[in-house]
Structures are given as structure tokens and as C-alpha cells.
Amino acid sequence: MDVKFVNAFVGSIINVFKTMLDEDVQVGKPVLKTAEMVTAEVSGIIGLSGEVQGSVVLSFEEEAACTIASKFAGTELTLESADFSDAIGELANMVAGNAKKDFTGYEASISLPSVIVGKGHTVSQSKVFPYLVIPCSTSMGKFNVEVAINTVKAPAMAGA
Amino acid sequence: MKILLVDDSRTIRNIQKNTLKTLGHTDITEAADGIEALACLAKERPELMLVDWNMPNMDGITLIKKVRETDKALPIIMVTTEAEKSRVLEAVKAGVNNYVVKPFTAETLSEKIEQTMAKLAASGAAAG
Which residue in A66, A85, A105, B49 has the fewest CB atoms around it within 10 Å? Predict the structure, then answer.
């Protein structure tokens, strides 16, 4: 994966959490997702289509997901709250949408968010391109941003 | 001022409502997509509309184009994650008066609303 895409997501994560939650995120070194890293309790998923195809997953353990969703929504949320999935989905939407603006030279669209809630679930890896896991840490808990994308054209030449 | 909020995320509508309340606006109607928004508009014309871009059933850009077929004057601010220049230009072409990129702070949203209303008041005064 081109480093500019990784940088776009890292910048986006930091920007979204600072702007919407007034929270600093420590972003760790991205690693390739392995079979041992498959469990999550909450996943917010956004699909990408166009010249950049794939998906972005924000995956959390329950406590971090509830704390982060509550601060984002400005009200106490649990996994059972009606607005819990909405808040996680919108957070994923903002991270993906904000990263997309830095996909210079590529036209891409994002899907509406999907949210999975359930202990130890797996968001399966693409067979074509693996997930890169960006580990993130905040004072409200840890989460991962998993990115699996592929480009379908060469970028336009600058100035062309 | 009557305001219509159009966004499929209730979380975002709540954040917007809180910002609007701090500006003294409490007469707020909500719609979760373009179709619901058109139904609201058929009942009552707001004085300002905030519109998301990516929504199910009918997206924001389609909604704005439909609204502009009959109402050129309604102030519309697009509030979206779509931040590329090409998208902003597309929205302006469709007829938005202002544009806010998510993520946004309460201050940014407040500024854009005040800026939009001030501009329209000034153009109305000039025309009058």
C-alpha cells in the first residue's frame, strides 16, 4: 500500500479525534493483520469504491467503544443504546471521508457505514489485499483502524 | 429562525442541535434523508437548511438540486465529510450557500451559519 494512503488515515484519525472529541491519539506503527489479531467487540466499517477500492474498519473493545461513542455523542451510551451504532458509524464515516481528501490523484467514494457489535467477531480479510492495522491509543482506551485498499489506475501526473 | 437538519446520523443532528441552541435557535425540525426532507419542506418552509451529502434513499446533492428547481432563495449549508475541491464545486453548482467539512467544531458551524445569514441579509438589503 502506498505510504500516502497510510499517512492520509493517520492524519485523519488524529484530526477527527482532536476536532470532535478534543482527544489526542497516539498512533503506533502500522502492521499487517494476522490471524491472531481477529477479535473485536465493536467494528465500524466503511467501504471505498472508484479508483481506490476496499474498506476501512474502526475496531474497538467494548469499554473503549462505549467511552469514545459517549464522548462523541455528548451523552452516556452503552452497547444497548439506540444511538450507539449510529455514533460508531459516524466516527468511521468521518475517519474515512477525511482520509479520502488526501488520496491525491484518485477519485473515490465512500459507502454508508455498517456497524457490527458482538464479542470476538471477525471482519474477514480480503483475499486480494491484506488489512494494514494502525494501532491507536487514547486516554479513553485503545482501538485499531484497519485499512485494506487497492488502487485501480495510475494516479494522474502532477500538472497534467 | 426555523431550521431543518438533514443527516442520516442522529448523533450528528444532536451535535448540530446543541450548537444551534447555543446560538439561540430552538425551532428545529429533523430529517434522516432527502425524501424525509422533501416531506418536511412540503409542510413548512424553513429559513435555513443544513444538509449531509451521503445519506440513504436520497442523498444531499440530489435533494439540493430538487429544492433549487422551485426555491432559489432558501439558505442551504452542506455539512459533509466530502472535502475534495471537486465535491465542493459540485455542491456550489447545485446551489449550496455555504459548506462545512466534517469533522467540525461548534465554532466553525456557528461561524458558517452566521456568515451565511449575514451574506443573505446584506444581499437582501442591497436588492431592497
Answer: A105
The residues spanned by each domain of chain B are 3-127
Quote the minimal CA–CA distance from B123 to chain A in Å. Answer: 32
ipTM: 0.89
- The structural architecture, per CATH, of the domain A3-151 is 3-Layer(aba) Sandwich (3.40)
Per DSSP, the residues of A50-75 read: ESEEEEEEEEE-HHHHHHHHHHHHTS
Given B11, B54, B101, which is nearest A83 (Cβ)? B11
Residues of A in contact with B83 (CB under 8 A): 97-98, 100-101
| SS3 (DSSP) at B83 | coil
Cβ–Cβ under 8 Å, residues A45 and A146: no
**Contact residues on chain B for A89, CB-CB shorter than 8 A:** 9
Instruction: Give A11→chain B minimum CA distance, Å.
Output: 12
pLDDT digits (tens, 9 = 90+) for A116-140: 999 888 777 666 677 899 999 999 9
What are the extents of the domains in chain A?
3-151
Would you tell me the crossing angle of helices B10-22 and A84-100 to the nearest 10 degrees? 90
Q: Which CATH superfamily is domain B3-127 in?
A: Response regulator (3.40.50.2300)
